[in-house]
Specification:
heterodimer, A: mainly alpha, 7 helices, B: mainly alpha, about 65% helix, globular
Chain lengths: ~210, ~550
């Protein structure tokens, strides 16, 4: 415990407040993208409908399920730390990381497939290959790559953080009295999942 | 304030507790981190100041005048100097200035805490800030940018120069700002000494707290805006590019949604400093503690709904213009509440005309002009004429320099004895005030008239009709420079030869004065127990 706190609970409460404040900033940052999306969706609804057709909703749906499942294993990881079941916690965290990896691999195939078809954001969109109906279709893919890309970066960061708390857990640093880092990382992971749950319909199912 | 906490007798303090220069770069102590910020921010202030002097020299006379007419090579160089002056002063001096230096040092002390909530994060914030600052200054040595500090699209997409590097620098410095704000919010919530209720915390803390809320809630929007701008430049994603169906005005909306609250990130801490100085150096209980505290929160809230007043001529709808105009005037209400409370505090107080008090009075005078001209500019019919003229330049310099920088200087002198344990030379400090105060008015008051006569801002040259007032303005910039140099000299002289400062030279009631000067490593020998409000003088 750091010396400027009265006791462990005091420190725990402070850390938790800090984590939630940080998550607020993450949500606000994505909020900017969502506002941009709303504005341009109001301007060109048919552009978003056309763009979504180039996406495979089944892959998006699988990824949604994978992330929701990873949220469960993350929550279990925290729970097992709290009840001193170290091995089970390690397994739960490892599965969570694996889910993150599955998500990123699927994302990788989605991206490379699009690159193959000449689907790039904005002005790089290959108009000759695609012959889009809406003249601004590149803008849709600007949103697609920015929103899913920023989310993907967060998934990678989340996987790194979970690896970090998993190693700490293997070393036996967590117990029923001290589990702040694993809980903090868990909150981060849940928020990232939650953002994807909004991104999936906005990008894949729109129109 | 409540129980007295005696100073330390061992002679150990935060400065000499750990030896060696290296110990400063690994320290987790909030006071030492404040000193790190002090040195770095003042260095950036010097760089930004040199840019300002260059701009004024260029505008000393129309370009056709022999010898003194054209100082800079061409208009491109002028645009670059202008950009660096703005970006450095905003992102690297005024935004971090009071919170990161004085806030870091005095927020925990005034709360009776041993440190901020997350000391490690606090040090990380400084490193993050310095990384961003290094990148920003790095652009100067790669390819210079000329977009102005606002990076308006579509120009910022098309122009040459290291715009991506610069916006990433601002992004990183924004991250530092977020982390500092987050740290302060949790500190205020969780680390108050026993008996320190929310309505016993000093007004400086209230101001830093309101600022921290703004830092945490507004800066993420800047982050995403700058990211999108970088993506726009690198990949041409289209969101701000009309050619691809995007909207350049959306950039302005996003940018000002952060940058208008940022104006209050710059001024609210200054108001906190002024509250401390006025009550202490007039030996009088603050008038309307609750009103001042809540008006800080009020300003913070209203500031989120006024961004459109930067865009009256950018093509937003008339209705939006009217709404933004009205809400902007609302900001005047909590601000005026503060002004009248400070005046009421001074009324029948035992005013001592010390240097900090002079700076605080200078703040009241100059900030009043800056604020009232802000109300003028909020009137859409007038703004259409004044937009992008020197009237606007004069207005925001009255707020940012006349307001914030005056408060920074006042705060430095007010807390100097506590920070360094040395007394400064009163005459030197007062002389610096005289030069800065007079020089400031000489520089910027003529710019109101120039603006009213129609001189546009950000121009490299002007017609002969504007020459006289521009000459006066440039001479004023030399006076300000002299004032800051005298101030710097006074501080250096005090550090070297100043008399030892007593623990509480001003007879203040707030907690930071109840420990030794300079404070010991963990601030207090015993955790203070608070039994009364912060300003119970008479």
């Amino acid at each position: 415990m750091a010396s400027h706190y009265r006791d462990a609970t005091h420190q725990y409460d402070s850390n938790k407040e800090g984590i939630w404040l940080f998550m607020t900033t993450e949500i606000l940052m994505f909020g900017g993208l969502f506002v941009g999306y709303i504005i341009f969706h109001a301007l060109y609804p048919e552009m978003f409908a056309e763009g979504a057709k180039f996406l495979d909703w089944r892959l998006g749906f699988i990824n949604t399920l994978v992330l929701i499942f990873s949220s469960l294993t993350m929550a279990l990881g925290i729970y097992y730390c709290q009840v001193n079941q170290r091995n089970k916690a390690t397994w739960a965290l490892a599965i969570t990381i694996l889910c993150g990896a599955v998500f990123m691999v699927i994302k990788y195939f989605e991206y490379t497939h699009k690159f193959h078809l000449g689907i790039f954001p904005g002005q790089k969109l290959n108009l000759e290959m695609l012959k889009p109906v809406h003249e601004n279709l590149g803008l849709y893919f600007g949103f697609y790559y920015c929103m899913s890309g920023l989310h993907g970066i967060h998934v990678l960061i989340g996987m790194g953080l979970i690896t970090w708390v998993m190693i700490k857990n293997i070393k036996g640093e967590f117990n029923s009295k001290y589990f702040t880092p694993v809980e903090g990382v868990g909150i981060f992971w849940h928020i990232i999942d939650l953002i994807w749950i909004f991104l999936f319909p906005l990008l894949y199912l729109v129109g | 304030m409540g129980q007295h906490v005696t100073g330390h007798v061992s002679g150990k303090n935060y400065i000499n507790e750990e030896p060696g220069l290296l110990s400063w770069f690994t320290t987790l102590d909030h006071k030492r981190i404040a000193i790190l910020y002090f040195v770095s921010v003042m260095t950036f202030f010097l760089i930004g100041g040199i840019m300002a002097i260059l701009l004024r020299l260029e505008l000393f006379a129309p370009n056709t005048t022999p010898n003194v007419g054209q100082i800079l090579k061409n208009g491109d160089v002028y645009n670059q100097v202008l950009t660096y002056h703005g970006a450095i002063m905003v992102f690297m001096v005024i935004i971090p200035g009071i919170p990161a230096i004085l806030g870091n040092f005095f927020l925990p002390l005034q709360l009776g805490a041993k440190d901020v909530a997350f000391p490690r994060l606090n040090l990380l914030s400084w490193y993050v800030f310095m990384t961003g600052a290094a990148l920003a200054i790095g652009t100067f040595f790669s390819t210079k940018i000329d977009t102005g500090w606002t990076f308006y699209t579509p120009y910022s997409i098309r122009t040459g120069g290291a715009v991506v590097m610069m916006v990433m620098a601002a992004f990183i410095m924004g991250m530092s700002s977020i982390l500092t704000g987050l740290n302060f919010i949790v500190t205020v919530h969780k680390l108050r000494a026993p008996g320190m209720s929310m309505f016993r915390i000093p007004l400086f803390v209230w101001a830093i707290y309101s600022t921290a809320i703004l830092q945490v809630l507004a800066t993420p929007i800047l982050a995403i805006t700058l990211l999108l701008l970088a993506m726009e430049r690198v990949f041409g994603i289209g969101i701000f590019d009309p050619k691809l169906g995007g909207d350049p005005v959306l950039f302005q909306h996003f940018f000002w949604f952060y940058s208008h609250p940022a104006v209050y990130i710059m001024i609210l801490p200054a108001m906190g400093v002024v509250s401390e100085i006025i009550t202490t150096h007039a030996k009088k209980t603050i008038f309307g503690y609750t009103a001042i505290a809540f008006s800080s929160i009020g300003i913070a809230l209203v500031s989120f709904f006024v961004w459109g007043h930067h865009m009256f001529v950018s093509g937003q709808s008339e209705l939006a213009g009217i709404v933004f105009s009205f809400i902007t005037m609302l900001v005047g209400v909590p601000t005026a509440i503060k002004m009248f409370n400070w005046l009421a505090t001074l009324y029948k107080g035992s005013i001592q005309f010390t240097a900090p008090m002079l700076y605080a009075l200078g703040f009241l005078f100059l900030f009043a002009i800056g604020g009232v001209t802000g109300i003028i500019l909020a009137v859409t019919a007038i703004d259409v004429h004044f937009h992008d003229t020197y009237f606007v330049v004069a207005h925001f310099h009255y707020v940012m320099v006349g307001g914030t920088l005056m408060a920074i200087m006042g705060g430095f002198f007010h807390w100097f004895p506590k920070m360094f344990g040395k007394m400064y030379n009163e005459l030197g400090a007062q002389l610096s005030w005289v030069f800065i105060f007079i020089g400031f008015n000489v520089t910027f008051f003529p710019q109101f008239i120039l603006g009213a006569k129609g001189m546009p801002r950000r121009y490299f040259d002007y017609i002969p009709e504007y020459e006289q007032l521009n000459k006066i303005s440039t001479v004023g910039s030399w006076l300000i420079t002299t004032g800051f140099l005298i101030g710097l000299f006074t501080m250096i002289q005090a550090l070297r030869n100043g008399a030892k400062a007593p623990d509480n030279p001003w007879g203040s009631k707030t907690l930071e004065w109840q420990t030794s000067s300079p404070p010991i490593m963990h601030n207090f020998d015993h955790e203070p127990i608070v039994t009364a409000g912060p300003y119970e003088y008479k």
